[in-house]
Amino acid sequence: MHHYLVYVSHKYGGRDYNVEKARKICCDLAEQLPEVLFIPALSVTCRRYSRRHYADDLSLLLELESRCDVVYMTEDWESSLGCQTEYEFAKRNGIPVAESYPELLAILNSLDREELK
Question: Is the pTM of this model over 0.85?
Answer without folding.
Answer: yes
